[in-house]
Amino acid sequence: MTVHATPPNVVRNTPNLDCIDFSGETPYGDFRDDIVQNGYAVVKGVITQERAEDYVQQFHQWLEDFGLGYKRDDPSTIKEECLPIIHQKGLIQAYGAPHESFTWGVRSEPGVIDAFAKLFNTEDLIVSFDAVNVSFPNRRDLPELKPWAHQDQDPERPGFRCVQGLVNLNPCGDNDGGLVVLKGGHRISQEYHDTFRDEEREFRWTNEMYLFKETGLEWLKEKGYEWVKVNAEPGDLILWDSRVPHYNAAPKGDNVRFVVYTCYAPVSTATQEELLQKKALFENTKGHSHWPQGFQPFVEHFVAPKRNGELDPLNTWKPRKAPVLGERAYKLTGIPYIGTTA
Fold first, then answer.
1. I need a labelling partner for 281 at 20 to 30 A (CA). Which of 33, 222, 243, 301 fits?
2. Over 60: is that where the pLDDT of 156 sits?
3. Which residues pair with 150 in a beta bridge?
């Protein structure tokens, strides 16, 4: 029996969710049928295309306001010296992005919240303070983004525990990059991990992650599972079961990928200590991983952007424009549930 190395960040188990019947015997007549069958779903038009375009322009304005020379109508300014530091995979976890006004604007959209309320059969929800994604097509100043198939869930905790999400803001077709999933991969996840339990694992920063090797990917291929690039229109919400192997591909067409990651969970899945931590994170404009319970704050030592080997002085960890939250959005922080039972 192989003894695997303990990751630097080990977090508690969260309860299995019972909001969906994966037996296939319960027809829902909506996106939940796709989650049951395929492990992912595209919920159409949770935001109007007009509002999605407005958020895109807010993203552009935010990038321009760094004062580094980026101009939305000048492709020659799409380079590191004109932009904040953007991860190879398009992630922006710093610069206050998790709590920027447009980020919270997307999280607060009624159609987004309604989809998760239907999924979990409750209005009492919390949301992750996660990153945004800005991926420009055909950047030559970044390393090539190769497939990095993974699950954002502990292989030793195989149940249905989390549904990840993102709101897509620009057209996202075949050549526009974005989410790639192993269709139906959630159904074979436990069998896979039982089969590969003794295989040496790649380094992972947290127990709630698993990186696939070529041996495992070949095994899944032999089982008949195929990768699908998920296309979406502006304003669509993409959801996926965390047990589904997935990765993001870089855009190769003409459209910039603008995405806000939106992961919600019933507040009942969080402890009071975690709600207190979310309060501290919110009040100090700190981000955390996709787990809405907030038990994985971003490790700033690892995610702090560096320019020419030095910490970027433009990163203050503060949003340029602080969000103004209504009552329903404020509940998503978890703060109103401190000291109460939802």
1. 243
2. yes
3. 211, 246
